[in-house]
Specification:
By secondary structure, the protein is mainly beta. The chain has two domains: about 30 residues; about 140 residues, lipopolysaccharide transport protein A fold (Sandwich), CATH 2.60.450.10. Helix content is about 15%, strand content about 55%. The protein contains one helix and ten strands; from the N terminus they run H-E-E-E-E-E-E-E-E-E-E. Strands 1, 2, 3, 4, 5, 6, 7, 8, 9 and 10 form a ten-stranded antiparallel β-sheet that branches. The longest helix has 27 residues. It is elongated and about 95 Å long. The termini are far apart.
């Protein structure tokens, strides 16, 4: 047997051993597969499709409007999950705030709604003629306090201004206050 044939044989055996070792280690360290099908988080005690709920203020005017494609309440953890929710917050003056997200979770007696996935917050033209659009992901909203926050990247668009950064605290209502927590960038376009 020549040196070249011996080197080739050693190389092929080494590669075969490495492949077997990799396959064996992958079998040990890979997590077990979860069974296919819907996940359940407990016992469902009620659900709704195409939910529309309106909360009124003490004067009988709309304070909040919530729409969701699906609402599922889990009795075990007193938790409500919403699919494609749209929350509208009405103030005393000016246009309402409209908040969209992919999904949301409302824990039992908590006053915080956890918005998951893409989050879009819109407000039509105010008395100054400016619109506002906020784009982020995974936010927490306290509707009764007119407050929202996120730890994710955020983009605030109010032409001719644009602000971006990471993490934010937003106070809605008639007096808007947006605080971006880090990596703040602002762009102002002169018409």
């Amino acid at each position: 047997m020549s040196i070249f044939a011996l080197r080739s044989l050693v190389t092929y055996l080494s590669l075969a051993t490495l492949a077997l070792l990799t396959w064996w280690l992958a079998g040990i360290f890979m997590p077990d597969e979860e069974p296919a099908g819907p996940r359940t988080y407990g016992t469902i005690d009620y659900y709704s499709k195409n939910l529309s709920r309106t909360l009124m203020d003490e004067n009988g005017k709309p304070k909040q409007l919530l729409f969701a494609v699906n609402l599922t309440h889990y009795m075990d953890k007193d938790r409500t999950e919403l699919a494609q929710p749209v929350l509208t917050l009405y103030g005393t003056d000016g246009p309402p705030w409209v908040i969209h997200s992919d999904t949301a979770i409302m824990p039992g007696e908590g006053d915080t709604i956890f918005l998951n996935g893409n989050v879009l917050i819109l407000r039509e033209r105010d008395e100054n003629g400016r619109t506002l659009k906020i784009v982020t992901q995974n936010a927490r909203v306290q509707p009764d306090n007119n407050y929202a926050e996120t730890d994710e990247f955020i983009q605030v668009l109010s032409p001719p201004d644009e602000m971006t950064g990471k993490g934010a605290q937003v106070h809605f209502g008639d007096d808007l206050k947006v605080t971006i927590l880090s990596d703040v960038r602002r762009k102002h376009e002169i018409p």
